[in-house]
Amino acid sequence: MPLPKAIVWSERIGLLIRVLILVGYPFVGIAVSFLGIESTTVTIPYRVFVLALAMFVILARSRRPLLGRLDALLLTFFVVYAIRLFWDWQFYEIPGADYSLLFFTMIVVAPSVATMLAGDGFGDAAFAKLTMLTGLVVLAMAVLSSALGLGFNPWAEQGVKTTRLMFEALNPISLGNCGGITLIACVFMLMETHQGLYVRILSYCGVGLGAWVLLAANSRGPLIAVALALAWFFVLRFRKMAYLAPVLLVLPLFIPNLDQMVDNVLERFSGPFLENGSNLVRIQIQEAALQSFVNNPFFGDHYLDRNFGVGFYPHNIIIETAMALGLIGLAMLTIMFCRAWSRMFTFYKISHPFIVMLLTQQMVALQFSGAIWGADAFFMLLGMTLTARKLAWKRLPPNSVDFEPVRLQSLTMPIAPRQER
Question: Per the domain annotation, does 156 fall within a domain?
Answer without folding.
Answer: no
